[in-house]
Amino acid sequence: MNITFPLICCLSGIIGLIVGLKWPRKLPTFSDKGKIAFLTGFRYLLSNEPDRAIEAFTKAVQLDTDTVETYVALGNLFRDKGEIERAIRIRQSIMTRPHLDRQIRLQALYDLAIDYKKGGFIDRAIDAFKEVIRQDPQRVDAYLELASLYQEIKDWEAAFKCIKELAAITKDNYSLMLAHFKTEMGKVSQREDLGKAEKLYKEAIKINKRCVDAYLHLGDLYLAKKNVKKALDIWLEVIKNASDYAFLVYRRIEEHLDKLKAEEALKKLIKYLEKMKRCDLWSCLILARYYHRKGDFFMAKRYLKEALTEAPQYTSARQFLAQILLEEGETQAALEEIKKLAKTSTLERTFQCSQCGYEAHRLSWKCPQCGNWDTIKPKAA
What we know:
Layout: H1 4-19, H2 32-46, H3 50-63, H4 68-80, H5 84-95, H6 102-119, H7 122-135, H8 140-152, H9 156-170, H10 175-190, H11 194-207, H12 212-224, H13 228-241, H14 246-256, H15 263-275, H16 281-294, H17 297-310, H18 315-327, H19 331-342, E1 351-353, E2 359-360, E3 376-378
Helix pairs in contact: 1-4, 2-3, 3-4, 4-5, 5-6, 6-7, 7-8, 8-9, 9-10, 10-11, 10-12, 11-12, 12-13, 13-14, 13-15, 14-16, 16-17, 17-18, 18-19
C-alpha cells in the first residue's frame, strides 16, 4: 500500500504544531530523551517508515506525557494505517486534558470527527463536525466534511442546508452543488409526488442554469405526464447549452421516438439538429431514425453514413443501415454491412474527470474520486 501521501499530511500537521501554526503560545518542550525519541520518529516519517515512526513516537509519549504534538502525530499515523480505534482513543485523551489551548482542543475534535468518518461511524462523525462548527462557525473544512457525510447517506436536504450556510459565511459560489442537491431531492419526490418534484427541478435550474441533470429529469417528468412538447423543449436547452451532455437527450429521444406525437415540437428539435455545423454520432442516429419513420430512406442513409465515416465501429448505426438496405431490397449491400459488423467492436463512450483524471464507463454527476460535481465529461469518441 502506498502511504506516502498520508505521511506527508501527517508531517504537515507535525510541522504546523512545531512552528506554532496550531500551537501559537509556546514551542513544545521535551526532556532530552523525549526529544530524541520525537526527532527519531520524525526522521522515520521522512524516510517513509511508519511502523518505526509509531514505535519512536510511542516511546516519546511514554517519556513526556504532556507533549500534545506527539499524541497528534501518533493519532494521524494510526488513522493512516487504518487503526481507527487507537486513533480515536488518542484524540479523546487529548481532549480530556485540563488547561488545553482552545484551538488545540478544537483541532482534536475535528480530527476525531475525521477518525469517526474513516471508521464508518457516520452518526458520531456528523455530531462531531456539528460541534466543531458550533464552536467555530468559520471552519470551512468542517462544513465541507459534514456536507460530504450528508451526501453519503443521501440526506440531500441536510446537505443543502449545510452548504447554504457555508455559502452565506464565505460568500463563495456553491450554486452548482446546491442545484444538484435540489435535483436529488426532486428525484426522491418524483416517486410519489410529481408536482413537488417539478417544483424542485425548477428551483434547481433557478439556482444554477448549468445543472444539466435537473433539465434531464424535468424533461422525464413532463414525458411521464404525457406533455411531450414541454419535454422536448426542456431537452433542447441541454442540446443548445451543454453539448457535451447532448447524447443523454438523444438516448431519451431514441427510446421514445415512436411515442412522440407532438410533431411540431419534434420538428423544431430536428430542425435545430440539422442546422448544427456538424452533427455528432448520436444526433446522426436520431436524424436517421426520424427520416426512416417518415419514409425518407435516402436522408436516413445519409446520416448513418455520415456517422460511420467518422466512427466505423458505431455498431448501432451500421445495424440500422443494414436494416434499411434490407427494407429497400438491397440484400447484397446489407450483407456487406453485416460482414463489417463482425469485424468491429462496439463503440463505448467513456468519461473522465477534468479535476482528478478519474475514468469510468458510466457518467456520474459527482466524481467518486475527488467529490467534485459536474467535472466528469465524455471523452472524445
